[in-house]
Amino acid sequence: MRQTTMAKPAEVKRTWYVVDGEGQTLGRLATTCAHVLRGKHKPTYTPNVDCGDYVIVINADKVEMTGNKLNTEKYYNHSGYFGGLRTRTAKEMKQKYPVEWVERAIQGMLPHTKLGDQMRGHLYVYTGSEHPHAAQKPVELKVKG
């Protein structure tokens, strides 16, 4: 008889991955990172346990978008006050806020729960090619496409 293994939070072994965003498409980069953050690449994946790994994204300012999406894609924020809706295009986000731009794409693919909040804490995005996590010895993660 086979038995389903359910991971316990204390038994989870986490590794660090680094993803180079230079020349990558935003959506493909985001799906790969979200997959690793959730832990779906592991055979011990358990939906109700944060068994994902840490992901470092470098060169966030060099991530691309295909087609005319840089001009047509819009990002919205609302302050909660009347008339407090702020709208930005993807082009503006890429130029002024590249870290938030990549984080939003990845975080939108994670669960919007307390468990998802834990997973979001394992994501680190940087604009340059340097990151302060060299001591963790991150492994390079390839993005298809």
From TrEMBL:
One of its GO terms (biological process) is translation. The keyword Nucleotide-binding does not apply. SUPFAM superfamilies: Ribosomal protein L13. Coiled coil: none annotated. InterPro entries: Ribosomal_uL13, Ribosomal_uL13_bac-type, Ribosomal_uL13_sf. Keywords: Ribonucleoprotein, Ribosomal protein. Gene3D superfamilies: Ribosomal protein L13. It holds the Pfam family Ribosomal_L13. The keyword Plastid does not apply. GO terms for cellular component: cytosolic large ribosomal subunit. It comes from the Bacteria. Belongs to the universal ribosomal protein uL13 family. NCBIfam families: rplM_bact. This protein is one of the early assembly proteins of the 50S ribosomal subunit, although it is not seen to bind rRNA by itself. It is important during the early stages of 50S assembly. PANTHER family: LARGE RIBOSOMAL SUBUNIT PROTEIN UL13M (PTHR11545:SF2), RIBOSOMAL PROTEIN L13 (PTHR11545). Part of the 50S ribosomal subunit. This is Large ribosomal subunit protein uL13.
